[in-house]
Amino acid sequence: MYAYNLCVNGFTVVLVGDPGTSKTLSLQILRDNMCQSEIENFQTRLNKKSIDLKALHVVSFQCTQNSKALRIEERWNQAISHSESKLVKPLLLLDEIGLAEHSKHSPLKVLHHLLENPKISFVGLSNWPLDAAKMNRVIVHQIPNNLDDDLKAIGEAIYKTEEHTNLPKGDIDMLVDVFKELNKQISKQKLPLCKENWLGRRDFYALIRHYMHNQVPRDSFQGVMRNLGGFRDPQFQKCLADALKKGTRKSVTEILTLMSAWEPLQCVKMNLQDENCRHCMLVCEKPYSWQLLLDHNLLSCEDAVFLFESNFAADRATMTGHDHLHKVINCMEIGKKAVLYKLKSIHECLYDMLNQRYYGNSLGVFLFFFFLSVIPPFSFFLLSENRFCRVAMEDQTRDCTVAKEFKCIVIVFKEDMENSVITYIEQFNRFVLNLFVCLILSLVCCCFLQRPKKHFLDALKSNTFHTLGRCLNPTYKQYQCLKKSLRECHNLCTETELSELFYGFNDDTIPSAISHILLQPKSQLQSDCDDDEDIKQNEKKKLEKLSELFYPLRHPAKIACLAMEIPPRNTNSTSQPFNTFVEYLLSMKKVIIVILLNYSQNKTK
């Protein structure tokens, strides 16, 4: 606030700080207190100190990597035009000025001569320092990142803003201890995806805010798993379990039970249903992992718009980016879900939306969410139920309506995360999706804790998890056993031959097939039975059904090769004649597709 007061008196300031350090919020507080409608009240409080101030008029510009010098200079001239008024003092705000520094157009060079003898106040907000040529022309204020020292004060301040909450005040200290301990442990470990400062301020704000309105930590770890536990690496989960054990003083069994109740897909589901939480980032190990959302009915094609990155020349044109932005804006207005598949090129244009920096109406009343501020958000009375946010399109911005039902899902790959900065990833609730891991985590509570099926069902409220537990032990060893069964069934010598026999076979194929079986109605799978012989028979039927799913995926050339080399086991080779191509056409009398290498050709009678 002191730095902003400097700019009110005609100085030029660049404020540098990590996400969540209240750069934008501080300016908004200053703007709200010094706007024309409130300046008289503010002036009355300052009269005791003989301070005379004009109303503050802020001219803002959202910077992106597509910003151009011409637009910045236009905003500068616009702010200067207001300096002729005796009632207001203009201030030019360049939000996220650090993004413009990476623009190929070098738009910030225009500031070199404008800042030599500025006639207006100037503020630049950045998550990282700028180059020396600009920093030497302004007053630079670096906000220290004393995260550990601030956590308790922040948690208590947020707690005081809520009059009605089920969260005991003592649990604030417990959540602070858990956050600190987890941050401390992962900083010592060299985990994939977990960079330095993997956990940020916004993660803590989201954690506290969640428990203000939901079940307290002693009854549910939903808030912990959604805001802190999205990375399902075993080593990371061990760090999280240790931090929870130390902070909550619960037993290992209790902690694992509460953690297992919130596997990745369940967390994503609750995130999509919660109107007040952050948007969702899915970190996929495979290009198709995100389709779990469709398979498990978390998304539907009618309620979501899918936008994909493309490397075709025509799709990399500027108009394609505009088309993507307009589709996202349409989703914002009607309350649909927007799924952005590796579309990082438009993320900067949607910076305010991804940060959920919404305001209520044209009067400038802002609705800030808990994870944007270092201090608790103030309770503003909104005159309208509509919410708006800025969207930057090239070097211009426009205000767009945001429906309460709107949600954005950003899909990235692991390599994208490794090349991303914390300022980008901290905007989201982050979840790592893997078919095999999602399947294992759905069953780990039942198998690891060795609880009776009835207790497990009562805990997870599911009628599907136990079916796989009856036929397969969800461990890596059993997963390898399934691979071995497929190899033996088709007389394959090595695992690499599985990809030769089955189209598209990879590490996720078997878990995907198992998931498909589990999603079938219970009557089609098996009934409850306690006799060991019946259980073995059901397990055998399960394996047979799993094998049946792979039959249509078999490569014809590989089948013929195997048939000629080694007769299939448990099969009478004389009863499996191979008809000639013509004989097959005559018997089928329909269109078939003959696959030759990577080409296909239709053949008819």
UniProtKB/TrEMBL annotation:
The chain crosses the membrane at residues 363-383, 431-449. Gene3D superfamilies: P-loop containing nucleotide triphosphate hydrolases. One of its GO terms (molecular function) is ubiquitin-protein transferase activity. It comes from the Eukaryota. The keyword Transmembrane applies. PANTHER family: RZ-TYPE DOMAIN-CONTAINING PROTEIN (PTHR22605:SF1). This is AAA+ ATPase domain-containing protein. It comes from Reticulomyxa filosa. The lineage of its organism: Eukaryota, Sar, Rhizaria, Retaria, Foraminifera.
